[in-house]
Amino acid sequence: MNQPTPPARRPADPRFSSGPCVKRPGWSPAALEHAVTGRSHRYGPGRAHLEEIVERSRRILGIPDDYRIAIMPGSDTGAVEAAMWNMLGARGTDVLAWEAFGKVWITDAAEQLQLEDLRVFDAEYGDLPDLGQVDCDRDVVFTWNGTASGVCVPHGEWIRSDRRGLTICDATSAAFAMDLPWDKLDVATWSWQKVMGGEAQHGMMVLSPRAIERLESFTPPRPIPKLFRMTANGKVIEDLFQGGTVNTPSLLCAADHLDGLRWAESVGGLPTLIERTQANYKLIADWVANRDWVEFLPSDPATRSPTSMCLQIVDPWFVGLDKDGRQHVRNEMVRLLAEHEAGYDVGSFRDAPPGLRIWGGATVEYGCLQALLPWLDWAFDTVKHAQGGG
After folding, report:
1. CA distance 155 to 157
2. Cα separation of 206 and 378, whole Å?
3. Can you tell me the distance from the alpha carbon of 300 to that of 293, in angstroms, rounded to the nearest whole number?
4. Four-way CATH pick for 31-266: 3.40.630.30, 3.40.640.10, 3.40.190.10, 3.40.50.2300
5. CA–CA separation, 118 vs 95, rounded Å?
6. Burial, 223: exposed, middle or buried (Cβ in 10 Å; 0-12, 13-18, 19+)?
7. Whole-number pLDDT of residue 386
8. pTM recorded for the entire structure
9. What is the pLDDT of residues 32-57, one digit of tens each?
């Protein structure tokens, strides 16, 4: 076999990272010209930018009027943990996990919060736990879309409408790319850096009226760090849900996120964002269906993420390698793709089976993904050839 020849065409934008994700098409630093730098976030234009982020997020995502929205420190992680620290312990808790970040919430519940009445439902990478075992009269903590495994819940029908517990949903790789059923979610969180391609370190939290009631009726049996505090004297801090923040946010990051939100509305809002994401997923799915060396990590099409698309290498030569050998192949493919400026950051998450992870969210251009695919074939063939695999 001759040395494989690199494809002639490269993606116009080779950034396919699953976070921070690529910015909206046409972005340049000029988008930040109107950032309110050197000013307080509590006054005038700085506060106005934060309020605009809240209201545009509500409008684009179709969040009900009686749900509250807050900007949180610590990205999606900070938002999820703020909800857990403030709300869990009032009743039994079920925590679901099928990849690295869900397992963090298990660790928080079991080891940090030390919840006495805790049930854990977990699954290996590529699978979901049995959602039918979840008791919605208990509080439920789960990830809508597992970024590291490429597995998402197929719908919200498993969540009872007459539930007595709260649902706390890490939706960071789903918001702005999937249609979330707000009536089934009491707490939903995401970060600016995911689907909308904003800068990192800032998160969002959406609370249902039931979640607000929990905040005001339940006193957690634990200290609450200042960055997580959402109540004062038994009442929610109203300013937090009106563009106020627990600590000082970056107004440069706020301007960048606003640029993304304004772009989203200009192209048609959530329906267009979902359409772009689904088109990208179909492109990858059709390509995978015609390859014998690679498959989706999730075997069930209904649970495959359309944003963080995780692939496993199934070529017999690759499968026959030991763990270190498979990891080396993955690393070499990632290196070659980056070296040729064909695709950046497309390796699987460090705890996942060695393979590829390609972000296909709404800011990724379809034509860029089209140009990437021949490079994936080339990278695998090149590494296989170099190692004498045929």
Report:
1. 6
2. 44
3. 18
4. 3.40.640.10
5. 8
6. exposed
7. 92
8. 0.96
9. 999 999 888 888 899 999 999 999 99
